Amino acid sequence: MAVLIPELLSKESENYIVSIRLLPDGLSFSGYNPHIKGSFFIHEEKWNPSDSYLKHLEDFFFAHECLAYTFKRFYVVQANADYTLVPLSLFLEKKADELYSFVFGHSADRQILHQPLKDDNQIIIYSMAPDVYTFCSRSLANPVFVHTQSAVFPLWKQRSLTKACRVMFASLAGGRLIIACYEQGQLLFTNYFQVAEYKEILYYTLYIWKQQQFDVQADRLYLSGEAQQTKELKMALSAYIMNVDIFDYPSEVYLMGTEILRTPIDLIALYLCEL
């Protein structure tokens, strides 16, 4: 299936910020021109997860010459990948593989990547399939590799700085629940969980709320994810926590275009924060 892209993309590609978001069963290609309101576009493609991911990726690249354009910035976003955070003061680049292996076990079949979190003293370490990393590195002009959470953490940090109370953020996508707790921009706790049932989401959220000694009346919980699911979660969690809200975005997001409202929080954060 051909990607439906703006006509201006071929003429003014150097003004566009674009991304390829790699998923276990496909990808999305999206972007926008910061100088043109409403210019955001996104194309999603699903593949058979039992087939060769690299072969699907190669076919997608070869079928779309627009990927060879020179862009203002081209992000390669790794979704649904395991990750860990390491304080900047303890991080050594040559030890990145060792640190990752300490958390997730050793494996020779992975490319270890890392990047600093914007405006924070943390490094996020994650992995990507080596053949996918090599192909993207060779096929794209100056790609910037990022993990889905690399822009979300700074976005959450910014929001917590505007609140006098402590804040918990819970994001649900692709069967993964990510939770982070902040106090005035300071990260107190973060972890992620694979969840298959609704009751698991409630359990982890409420357990961590209690574990971190959050106040059910004074502190705040923000939810993000698929619209209907977050609406249902808000109703359920409001029985236990007074201040539960669905995460709302800065006004500049809505100027990018209506299509961006159906994208996951990590892509929205990426285009907002521009790592």
From TrEMBL:
Pfam families: DUF3822 (PF12864)
InterPro entries associated with the record: DUF3822
Domain of life where this protein originates: Bacteria
Protein name according to UniProt: DUF3822 family protein
